[in-house]
From TrEMBL, chains A, B:
PROSITE patterns: HTH_GNTR. The lineage of its organism: Bacteria, Pseudomonadati, Pseudomonadota, Alphaproteobacteria, Hyphomicrobiales. Residues 15-82 form the HTH gntR-type domain. One of its GO terms (molecular function) is DNA binding. This is DNA-binding GntR family transcriptional regulator. It holds the Pfam family GntR. Keywords: DNA-binding, Transcription, Transcription regulation. It comes from the Bacteria. It comes from Methylobacterium aerolatum. The keyword DNA-binding applies. InterPro entries: GntR_C, TF_FadR/GntR_C, Tscrpt_reg_HTH_GntR, WH-like_DNA-bd_sf, WH_DNA-bd_sf.
DNA sequence: CGCACAATTCTTGTCGACAAAAAGAATGCA
DNA sequence: TGCATTCTTTTTGTCGACAAGAATTGTGCG
């Protein structure tokens, strides 16, 4: 229960309140610090952040609109569940998003985009080497969002943000089970993606992105079926 | 200025306030009753709906998250502008969305989905025959959202909602210029889509959806270039 | 007459308080 | 003891009020 009062910022700028709460809550939800289904109490959050319920409420409304918390009318709001039953729909969407954003990036990127993407890739490799799963997942999301932004289509970048956000929760479960060795080959796949984008090789980028997505989907599916076997064995 | 006080519902259920404001404002924005760029005053809305600023604010936050209003911190919030310069990105996204949702609908639909879709199609034809552009646009959005729902992938249905929402504003501009004759062939195209879905003809549905989207994009682009020519001619 | 600075107004962000729902506890009856 | 009903408590939705920025007006000086 992470409810230490965070008395770090007794003074804050006007209008920043909701954003602070939103950012922190979002991160805690996506990192599974707040487990799915756990209830969210507004007054408790108010005490924790040292502010009134109003900005808390605004943050919760935004999280609800984003699908990260679900709120029953006149009843408690809680952290949204992960829909394991329809997980394949998630990977369908992810694969298509990877393909289209990488294609567009290969077409429309500018030099500054590449430096941004390469910087994130460096961070990513560092996180993998440091075996920091949490950082790795967050940077992975930032990496693909940067690619989406290089594609210059705000509808697809919006979709990327959404999918990669939820992806952070799903991948977290995955890496938690493999807490010994983070797979280095994902770094290489990212590297190939960058090369294809830099070469403006649209078809190659598409192919790599598709393979990348399918590989991740397969890994996660393998994990889930294995977990299913374990459950049955017990 | 549509600010008559709407004293229709002096009593309302608890928790419904924000939804009422959200639904009505969203509709007014998408129907261009509220023109892009026009400022939104919270207290004025409060008087209009007969409620405090708090539920108004919640509705505005949700609209902002959806991209329908843009809000400068500590300054006025206003109806979001339509980004005409990057209109092609919209149609790129629309085409891909049409294709994938129609494909999935052909694969995954159930009988009840088809009755729903056919009902909307009947309404659509009625609106076209009645030359009711506003209803036609709204029903068109509902029609494609129903197809997306039949595809059973909530990420794509979410994207559809978003794109078709903005589409209502763009198409409104289009039909406003052609207020003499609403094109009947769009009804036929919808009919073909339904047939392909019912036949579970995935490739056919894909092809039709792609053609449908490209046709709309071309029409709108033609309108815009023509408007551009007129502007230059003046 | 023009420009910079100060005062005022206006709008938004935040707060504390109150009331309605719902959940939970307690009581009464069979 | 079990169940239904009432009462209490908890939590949310709404309200009115206040204060901080920003925009606007007003003023004085060059």
């Amino acid at each position: 229960m992470p409810d230490e009062p965070v008395a770090s910022l007794p003074e804050r700028k006007r209008g920043a309140g909701a954003k602070i709460v939103y950012d922190l809550l979002r991160d805690e939800i996506l990192n599974l610090t707040l487990s799915p289904g756990s209830p969210i109490d507004e007054v408790q959050l108010g005490e924790r952040f040292g502010m009134s319920r109003t900005p808390i409420r605004e943050a919760l409304v935004r999280l609800a609109e984003e699908g990260l918390v679900s709120t029953l009318p006149n009843r408690s709001t809680m952290v949204a569940q992960i829909d394991f039953l329809n997980l394949h729909t998630y990977f369908d969407a992810l694969a298509l998003m990877y393909r289209v954003t990488t294609r567009l990036a290969a077409q429309n990127h500018r030099p500054s985009d590449l430096t941004e993407i390469r910087a994130l890739q460096a961070e990513y490799a560092r996180a993998v080497q440091a075996q920091d799963a949490l950082a790795m997942i967050a940077i992975n999301a930032a990496f693909h969002i940067a690619i989406a932004e290089a594609g210059r289509n705000r509808y697809f970048t919006g979709l990327s943000r959404r999918l990669l956000g939820e992806g952070r929760r799903i991948l977290r479960l995955y890496y938690d089970s493999y807490d010994d060795q983070l797979p280095m080959h994902l770094v290489d796949e990212h590297e190939e993606l960058i090369l294809a984008i830099a070469d403006r090789d649209v078809e190659g980028a598409d192919r790599l992105a598709k393979a990348h997505a399918e590989q991740i989907a397969m890994q996660v599916q393998r994990l889930l079926t294995r977990r299913g076997d374990l459950d049955i064995a017990l």
